[in-house]
Write a structure and sequence with these properties.
Strands 1, 12, 13, 14, 15 and 16 form a 6-stranded mixed β-sheet that branches. This protein is α+β, with helices and mostly antiparallel strands. It is flat, with a radius of gyration of 29 Å. The chain contains 14 helices and 22 strands.
Length: 572
């Protein structure tokens, strides 16, 4: 204790002023790590303090100036070194360490119980030894149980399914057919690349977003290339936007012309700042979002784990990190983020898919899955690699629900193709809902619908086509369809081409297939009156990029089939 006291006195001195100085330096360094924009002014403060001391001692301005720039350089070098080398290494250990919380809890409980027994020990020494031994045998057994619960995947999936516990819906919600999603991700990625005129910029992976009128758009940042000498911070120049409800694919680089970010979500600064602020979480998707006041931010959702009653650590959406164009960072919990950014796709699709897989397999409980082998489902999708683009869940808007991540489920195995249930997860909060198809209603699941897409055009060489994104479409009368994107298969001449040839609307009842080349044809098939096309996200120049398409076939109107009751949209 005396040695610790001496060290403290050496560091702080004996006065409150010395202690304040130590706290000042600690605050200066820690704030620089937590807020990256603060590093440069903090370095200037350090340089100014040291240069003032040198000037007061030597009265030489040149020496003081040299100390200022030397101190600034050294401070930034230490800051950059910590961001690039120290923090990433620490984060590798802190994230897995959080998974060991149940083990620590079991061990700590054993220590507490042992100490309590020692303080209240009664009886012979043998009785005490037996009590202590029994306590630690229980601790070891609990530790082994926790290890099993976190490393045996069936238990992990069972606990994930139990923790999901979706709300059962009595009616099937109607898709927002005024703002459909016709443009698949692969084609949107191509169009964003075609719209990029600057060889110093590279596009990112597109993600879906919503504007104030509930129109769906694909958005992608344009990053400065990493080999540019002036791009030390990983900046973002602009955000490109494409209307997801149109097939003419007007890419609009001008829509996000004010969306400049000093450092983007891929920069080493953003990655290190995240790891400092969230040592027990993993970053997920980044969404570039235009706020109601017109300012652009990007939102990084992050996930962590929490224990269940069995000690299994299951993943969940822990929060959202907001970064503006100047580098200001703010953290929000899931609930606060949902209020600040309504209808923003914040819930990670990869997390939604993990829960969908777990729930499909273990929804009926442990006994039903392991003993009875009943009520086991799986995500309905094809196993073909050529058709495995952008797997479920799919982001769609529904009347009364808003933006949802949708996963269709069918009976497990290759013997059942009927749609059994549809899992909905709120795209902002992750709140789960599920709709079970009534026993008296038979609907084909997407996997079977994709096998019947060829009915839409018997003259097409379907061997040269890829099928992608079988999305549900529910009409106002309760009719259920699957809208499948038909893409041009990669060729030797165009190995990275995923041009949209057309979409096919497949009736889930009788598997009738209808070609859809544009929004107007889809409206006609669904019996919707012509609507005004969604406006371009900005009035600035919109660049039309039109891939080669098939000749449009006349749209056939589907016959009426037995329909499901649908959820009516709430009145304004």
């Amino acid at each position: 204790m005396n040695r610790l006291t001496q060290i403290w006195r050496i560091l702080t001195g004996s006065s409150r002023i010395a202690l304040a100085k130590v706290l000042f330096w600690i605050a200066l360094i820690s704030v620089s790590l937590i807020e990256p924009w603060f590093a440069a002014p903090a370095g200037m403060v350090v340089g100014a303090i040291l240069s003032a001391k040198v000037f007061r001692a030597t009265r030489r301005f040149s020496r003081a100036a040299g100390v200022f720039f030397g101190a600034l350089t050294a401070y930034l070098a230490l800051y950059i070194g910590a961001y690039m080398f120290v923090i990433p290494v620490l984060h590798i250990f802190t994230v897995p360490a959080w998974n060991y919380v149940p083990y620590v809890a079991v061990l700590f409980s054993g220590v507490i119980v042992t100490f309590w027994m020692y303080r209240r020990s009664r009886g012979t020494r043998w009785a005490q030894v037996l009590s202590y031994s029994a306590t630690w045998l229980i601790v070891i057994a609990l530790g082994a149980g926790v290890w099993f619960a976190n490393n045996y995947q069936p238990v992990v999936k069972w606990q994930m399914a139990a923790s999901l516990d979706p709300e059962v819906m009595q009616t099937l919600p109607q898709t927002n057919n005024d703002h459909p999603r016709l443009l698949p991700r692969q084609t949107a990625r191509d169009m964003i690349s075609f719209a990029n005129k600057d060889n110093t910029l590279i596009p990112g992976d597109p993600h879906l977003g919503l504007d104030q009128d509930m129109n769906l758009f694909w958005r992608s940042p344009l990053y400065w290339k990493g080999d540019l000498w002036y791009n030390v911070a990983g900046s973002v120049e602009t955000v490109v936007t494409i209307d997801a409800s149109q097939t003419n694919m007007h890419a609009s680089p001008a829509a996000g012309k004010e969306a400049f970010f000093l450092f983007g979500d891929r920069s080493w600064i953003a990655e290190a700042a995240f790891k400092v602020r969230h040592p027990f979480s993993q970053p997920s998707q980044a969404v570039y979002w235009k706020k109601a006041d017109g300012k652009w931010v990007y939102l990084i959702s992050y996930t962590s784990v929490r224990p269940t009653v069995t000690g299994t650590m299951v993943p969940y959406l822990a929060g959202v990190m907001e970064v503006d164009g100047h580098g200001w960072i703010a953290d929000h919990g899931p609930k606060a983020a949902a209020e600040l950014f309504p209808n923003a796709p914040l819930y990670p699709p990869a997390l939604a898919r993990r829960y969908a897989d777990a729930y499909a397999e273990w929804n009926a409980g442990f006994v039903a899955k392991t003993v009875n082998k009943s009520n086991i489902m799986e995500v309905s999708e094809t196993d073909s690699k050529d058709q495995g683009f952008n797997p479920a869940p799919y982001l769609l808007t529904f009347n009364g629900l808003g933006l949802q991540e949708v996963t269709p489920l069918e009976p497990a195995g290759n013997s059942g193709f009927a749609l059994k249930a549809v899992l909905f997860q709120d795209a902002t909060t992750g709140y789960p809902r599920i709709y079970y198809v009534p026993k008296e209603v038979v609907l084909n699941a997407p996997r079977k619908a994709m096998e019947n897409v060829h009915k839409a055009d018997t003259e097409t060489d379907w061997g040269q086509r890829n099928l992608a994104e079988p999305r549900p479409v529910v009409s106002s009368t309760g009719k259920v369809y699957w809208l499948v994107a038909v893409l041009l298969k990669d060729t030797v001449e165009h190995p990275d081409s995923h041009s949209l040839v057309m979409s096919v609307l497949v009736d889930a009842s009788d598997l009738s297939a209808y070609p859809v080349h544009n929004r107007e044809e889809l409206n006609k098939l669904l019996g919707i009156a012509p609507v005004k096309p969604a406006s371009s996200p900005a009035k600035e120049e919109a660049l039309p990029v039109i891939p080669a398409q098939m000749e449009q076939a006349p749209a056939a109107v589907p016959s009426d089939q037995k329909a499901l009751p649908v959820m009516s949209s709430p009145k304004e």
